[in-house]
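In response to a reviewer's request, we include the raw inputs and outputs for one of the modeled complexes. The two entities were modeled together in a single run.
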Amino acid sequence: MTDRKNPTHITRRTALTYIGAGMAALALPGQSYAASDKTLRYGLSTFPPALTPWNNTGAASNYVKLCLYRGLMGYDSEAQLVPEVAESYEWVDGNTIVFKLREGAKFHNGEPVTAEDVIFTFTSITAEDSSAYLKSSFESIDSMEAMDATTVKFTLKLPSAVFLSELANYCAGIVWKGSDPEDPIGCGPYTKTDEERGVFIEVTAFPDFYSEGEPRSGKIRFTAYSDQNLRYAALETGDVDVIEYLPWTQFDTVEESEELNIAATVSPFMLALFNVEKDGPFKNPLVRRAVGYAIQRQDVVDGVFAGRGTPLLGIPNPPGSPYDLSDPSIEYSYDPEKAKALLAEAGYPNGFSCRLLGTSTYGMHQDTAAIVQAYLQMIGINATLDLPDWATRVKKGKDGDYDIAVHGLSGFYNDPNALWPLLHSGPSNYTRSFGFASDRIDDLLERGRAAMDEAEREEIYKELAVAYYEEVPQIPINWRGQAHAMQASVKGFKGFPGWLNTSSGFSFDTTEPS
Amino acid sequence: MLRFALNRALSAGLMLLVVGTVVFSILFLVPGDPAELLLSSDGITASPDAIASLREEMGLNKPLLAQYGEFLVNALRFDFGVSLIDKASVGDTIATRLPRTIELILAGLVLAALTGIPAGTYAGLRPGRRFDRIASAVNAVLISLPGFVIGTLFIYIFAQFLRWLPAGGYTSFFTDPWLHIKQLTLPAITVGLHLFSIIFRMTRASVLEMRGNDWVRTAVAKGLSRKLVVRRHVLRNALGPVITVVGLQMGILLGSTVLIEFIYNWPGLSGYLVTAVQQRDYPSVRGVILVVSALFILINLMVELLYSMLDPRIRLE
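The model returned the following structure tokens for the whole complex.
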């Protein structure tokens, strides 16, 4: 029996009362923060796996990287290519270019940005053991020379029409030469001040940033919302100011909303790839072309992307490209009769069976695969779906463990040369048809890159569009919509057009929350 | 008792060794290359020599047996290595994230127990009456609704529509206690609803069984108040099975709150595990699985001990 009269005795009930009161006391509002500076809250689609300046670790990383690191070239708020850490540049001839660096540009540790740092950066990117995304691109640099502390001369092995665009890439940030390789120091508009792995990253404006009056936000807090619906909910409830990868089903809602704005473009494209090395039907370009005529592309746009996209009928010339490469004679249409005729011509009048690879990790890949499967069925191709997780998908693509595959691809700037990694032959990877190589396409890409004359380039890429149709390295399906959504009160944020969309982080310089 | 504990500790150690070995080997059978994955995103991929350099840097080119030995020796010292992706310490990440998952589960459990046990008891004492019928019907709905459906509905109703609570996220209690509790509310209720249905069902069935026993009739016959009979004779005996099931559920929840953590952006352990699996971040996957297994074993051991305290007839031999 418990002695209920003993005042010091704590029964379970009184203990619970104390605990409850304690919890309630703790739950009282904590001290509120005086907003000393405006913080922009940005909803990322995934937490950046790594922020190593020169590796491509995905779109989410790029937004943060553009806060910390900047390269010689960049984009202004209208997405025009402009000198960034460089103040100006001058082509001496097709192979030689001289950059004058900004006076007063500083790294986050206070050291001035010098020609030596630029040379250090590109030497590191192209070093033997480098894992830099642009390693092979910058291997085009023959030599670099510091003419004085802030002037640096690059000599290229071949003329390059796209060298400046490559310098503006988010994987080409200039890094202080004395940096610890584990923690490279950049000269971007922000410095990283707080982070919890997997949850958020907070960056604070760098007071010595070279561009006067920028950045406009005192801080940017990047929070990762992997679930697209929650990311949108967080925007709607006002938990964040800007989100990326607005779900396609919400485009309408945001467009109609008075509180929210949308910045939409079409950017990546969906396509079909083939295993052309295996002795099978897809080795024959006629069969691949038949697939091109078999798919009703609008169905994919409507069914998978809620109508937010456009059918892609020919070469994926990036939106915003300087050249118009469209030509109906080398473009696909929905024509099942023609597809069947092509199959018959190739020796498969009764169709055949094959394996169609996609991934269950991304709904859009899975759904596109299902629609493609249905349309293939109609011309007699029986495709069995193979939908492993993303990691397995990448491996199977690289090993050629498929017959036909559905995929989404992108480039990083709006010039046809950005198709190089997707079309030029090279060691096998999951972004190209397995075993596909065409000397004709390789040659055109190489000539397009080296040509400095606009008219000449246009001719070359028009020929490339023909080669794309005739050699069938891939079957285009559709462009898909890509959008940022933001509070109507946010000023200055721009979603860049086309393949520059993942470089939209440049516009953080001018972005201001309300 | 001591012998029992020693026996158990030994078998727990063996189990962990088996778990560690299985996890280690399975990861190498699953296709996917962490170096290639890290450098391949958004339809862009790196050159093969960039991938090769990164593989070398990640230490993936060492012989398998050497990697296995290193893993075992380090695990013994609670050193789970560093993430392949960003070199963050796996042990530190687990130490940050595990308490959040436990907090979420415990908050859900407290809510579920505070409601489930009284409701189950009441329903069990008056089977077939109105309360029992309604509560059992609600329970049937709850048990068949998956957490992610409830979660999505909750976010829509309480965050997007009513705007009472944030849509998700996490803030440390020490940064902003009020926001922390607001952010905990919806996920904890979501976890709690499922647990509630289990606790309610078990308690009801168990109470129903106990109340028909002779000693209960005797207690009533000798004039004990109804309250006392229920508390001392019915409930005390009825709670044994409930505790077993709750213990098991706790272990299961450690690994399966993932959908709820995902929906509410609650940065707990299972979200970490899923990301690690997707990235093929081997050390992180191994670390989390080992820790969760160890906890699972520990919880079961505690349940057994608790059981024997509730019912001294159960001897621990």
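As requested, we also summarize the result in words. The longest strand of chain A covers residues 260-274. Chain A has a mean pLDDT of 90.
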